[in-house]
């Protein structure tokens, strides 16, 4: 008995390992958030806060607020479009006999494997060729390109054979096709639709490369932060970075609470 | 549930005279299936099926998996279109009418209830689709739920119900819209045996009460016999036999029907004489004169149920089959059933012995059979 180490000591390697891993992941974020409350003009130690003056600076910066509005608009609209298109594609491929279904499914999910840089370049060339000016619209299209495959994959994976039978029962009881979709398919798939919508929002919210390459005068928040960073570090960049991070966390929490908790119940 | 709208055909329920699918009877049948063929790529699932289902009857399509019974049900429900042939419901051609526009509803094997709705929402769905106003809908849902004894569950969600309760809700949901024909796709398959037997009786009672034509698919011959007015035995896309349970059991038309509906012993033989609706068949177990029509020289089989094989010399009409040695014996509650090898027969015989007569392996039995119990099989 005496030779055995007490339990906390035996677990020490595991504890150290976990501490290192979490430190590696969260230390940069923690530093970012901490120095957003810095009092002085440079976000480097020693910390001399806390102060909210840099947050005040962010929220009184009209360019920053315009970018914030743009980001929200692009995230909401592009996510909505992605979910609707992804759902319709999944419904067709899961329920109808579509010629070359495998090929179509492959092309739908292929963008998941392509780097954002390549997608951005492709979009840039395409928009130039068709003479479409860079705008929030082009950013939105870019975000649909990256989020549609994700929405399709999530929703398609949830359309099982049992649910097909439930839809059959609705038709059997006299429901027209649009009624089957609205009254049966969508409500049953609600968690999957909700999850793909919120995931799309988080991806659109902090996406930089595409938004940077296909925008000009109207920019989203990540692009605005990037142009601010070019003039050097100051606690204002930390403040806006912390704000972006906070929103992302909030969305993930909402998703977790609404979708995943309910499924467990 | 209102029975008023269904009164026209309720009379024929259980009436043995509907046995023959007489062609002279031109009154509108609930369902007429006219040479329906269904092909899936290379496989022939249904081979020119013709079947007439009388108004108000409880018809059971019975067969092993792959016999085409579910395919036929799906064609009746509109979920599949036949490759060839026509389907008429109450005289109207519905062959290519989609499920939503058919006067049929279905009780699915997995119930297929709407998990996001309450029980009342489930049962009222079909009525809502028919544009029936809320107050009336509410009343009819209530009545339908009372019919299946689940009025107290109307505010619950589907996942709060047991399997047997889901089954009843599925039945109420399908019946509340007053279909011309109710289709049941192995509805008792997912229930345990005891609950399944109980639901059988309830199904039968509800069918009698509402008078709707029921078409029920199963592979369970006991279930079929317990509930059907007419059993349709199917095999490999064809109808082997159809008629009231007693007729199909006691005088099966084909070897398959005799074998699938309970146990049967078969004696192969050849016709040596035929006259006036009776034939003489020579077999390895002797010469038997039985009812039926066949040509002299034709190879035929005689089938006899295990309970018709007598182990004690019975009535004067009984003919000896020879002495058999018992191979196995089992107790089935109401009786013993044993397998016994006859000297002259190539296959062992199944014999049913009384409950209190326990005969062990190795014992010798003298077997007899009344030729009236022998069924001539030419197919």
Kindly report how far apart the N and C termini of chain A lie. Answer: 44 Å
The rough form of chain B would be described as elongated
Q: What's the structural domain tally of chain B?
A: 2
Largest sheet report of chain A:
none
Percentage of residues in helical conformation of chain A: over 70%
Topology:
The complex is a heterodimer of chains A (265) and B (379).
Chain A (H helix, E strand, L loop, with lengths): L6 H4 L1 H24 L17 H7 L2 H34 L5 H9 L6 H15 L5 H22 L3 H12 L4 H29 L3 H5 L7 H9 L5 H30 L1
Helix pairs in contact in A: 2-12, 3-12, 4-7, 4-9, 4-11, 6-7, 7-9, 8-9, 9-12, 11-12
Chain B lengths: L30 E10 L2 E11 L4 E5 L6 H9 L6 E6 L2 E2 L10 E4 L11 H11 L4 H14 L15 H13 L5 E5 L7 H18 L2 E6 L2 H7 L2 E6 L2 E6 L1 H6 L4 H6 L4 E11 L2 E6 L2 E6 L7 E6 L4 E2 L8 E13 L3 E8 L6 E6 L9 E6 L5 E3 L2
Parallel strand pairs in B: 3-8, 3-9, 6-7, 7-8
Antiparallel strand pairs in B: 1-2, 1-4, 4-5, 9-10, 11-12, 11-14, 12-13, 14-20, 15-19, 16-17, 16-19, 17-18
Helix pairs in contact in B: 2-3, 2-4, 3-4
Key features of this structure:
heterodimer, A: MetI-like fold, 0% strand, B: 379 residues, Rossmann fold, OB fold (Dihydrolipoamide Acetyltransferase, E2P), 6-stranded mixed β-sheet, 8 helices, 20 strands, 34% strand, elongated
Describe this protein's structure:
- The complex is a heterodimer of chains A (265) and B (379).
- Chain A has 265 residues and is an all-alpha fold.
- Chain A has a single domain, classed as MetI-like (MetI-like fold, Orthogonal Bundle).
- Chain A is built from 12 helices and no strands.
- In chain A, helix 4 runs parallel beside helix 7 and helix 8 packs antiparallel against helix 9.
- Chain B is of the alpha+beta class and 379 residues long.
- Chain B has 2 domains: 4-103 and 179-256, 3-Layer(aba) Sandwich (Rossmann fold), CATH 3.40.50; 266-377, Nucleic acid-binding proteins (OB fold (Dihydrolipoamide Acetyltransferase, E2P), Beta Barrel), CATH 2.40.50.
- In chain B, the strands form 4 sheets. In chain B, strands 6-7-8-3-9-10 form a 6-stranded mixed beta sheet, with helices on both faces. A 5-stranded antiparallel beta sheet of chain B has the order 13-12-11-14-20.
- Residues 1-25 of chain B have low confidence and may be disordered.
- Chains A and B meet through helix 8 and helix 9 of A and strand 6 and helix 2 of B.
